[in-house]
## 1
Amino acid sequence: MIFKKKEKWKTLDDVLRGSLKMLDRGARNFTHPFHWPALATCGGDRVNLRTVILRDFLKSDRILICHSDFRAPKVSQIQNNPAASWLFYHPKEKIQLRISGNVTLHTHDSLAEKQWDSTHIISRINYRTTYPPGTPIQEPASGLLDSILDKSSELLHSQAGRENFAVIVCRFNHMDWLILRATGHMRAQFTWDGNKLKASWVVP
Ligand SMILES: Cc1cc2nc3c(=O)[nH]c(=O)nc-3n(C[C@H](O)[C@H](O)[C@H](O)COP(=O)(O)O)c2cc1C
């Protein structure tokens, strides 16, 4: 008997729902490929791209969240230009998502507090380099004081990096979905104007 694989992506609605589900899984599960997107920001005359961890996805508001050191270059880039793009790729599903929108920064509000509370104590050490990320140094080094690297004492001071902690919150209004298939690639685009959605299949 021949089993024909059921078509998963028959409608634009299938694509949208499936994409949002993958973002949701990516935010919750560190083994999911969508947990490690690339985030692009504009700085001067350059586009700047880096890997980040997707920390949260608020589906009803179309919001993607990641964390950063407030002193990092990406933060001043966002302060100058809030436009940002995210790139996700799932190698097994062969699905690429390109998402763009505007970013707001949160440091001292309830959202930032909630995100800080959700961080693992061990990752809080990332916000404690003596000098800002990107500062030139003479030799390869973590930028952390030796006393901080003694993690046993660190656990007692886990609030210490809080002042350098920032939350990058991106409300997106455009999503480009692409799936690679031997039988022909497929691509779709979704654009929101407020909550009004325009969706279309496009040539891959
Ligand atoms: C797997 C991986 C995950 C990363 N996650 C983050 C992150 O969530 N937030 C962050 O600020 N930097 C993260 N980084 C470091 C950034 O890629 C980047 O090097 C750093 O943030 C400095 O970027 P900037 O100079 O553009 O601000 C990650 C790097 C890797 C390799």
Note: The radius of gyration is 20 Å.
## 2
Amino acid sequence: MGTINALNWRYATKSFDPELILEDEKIDLLKQAFNLTPTSYGLQPLKLLVISNKSLQDKLLASSFNQKQVTTASHVFVLCIEKKIDTSFIKNHFELVKEIRETPDTVLEPFRNFLIKDFSKKNDEELKQWAKNQAYLALGNMLTVCAIEKIDACPMEGFLPNKYSEILNLDDSQIEPVLVLPVGIRHKNDMFSSMKKVRRPIEDVVIDLV
Ligand SMILES: Cc1cc2nc3c(=O)[nH]c(=O)nc-3n(C[C@H](O)[C@H](O)[C@H](O)COP(=O)(O)O)c2cc1C
């Protein structure tokens, strides 16, 4: 399947076949795609919850505006952001760089100090928005991998983050849900699968400057 064919093949799946479960290899691919997502400064202010438990999925239905994708999906990914992006979070990142690349402290220090100073100027709302931007990028990356790997998926903003936190016992944790991505195999009766893609004409959205 060519790249554009793959992107045309994927659609926001409204109904999954609840009998069909994705192989572990496919789920592992998506976990890796999530983790390989580039993030601003490489700081990865993200965590991914992977739910494969029908009774837990059923509990999420009401808090997902009754969108049945969350109950019929093989797995439900919940993309979360870190609530605490502080000096120690930034320092931990640089410790990882040091460990993996064996970069000396003297080389890392100026950039580390710059980031610590820069992030200390951001208020909670700005930090949250910055982290959320990274989650959207991860969502896009995962959707593209879904298209290439023929995994059906539905990106979702339509859910109640506070309720999800309650149901998933995240209230005392350092993470907060921001996006949901149910994945699985489309149900043969999902009428959306045969609908034409609705996109603005390419001439309207792309401006070639020559
Ligand atoms: C960030 C984001 C949030 C979305 N939230 C929902 C959602 O809550 N429920 C839903 O059914 N579709 C949701 N969608 C799917 C879009 O409606 C869909 O991608 C768009 O209409 C284009 O259709 P296509 O993906 O089938 O090509 C969302 C898409 C994105 C990118």
Note: DSSP finds nine helices and four strands in the chain.
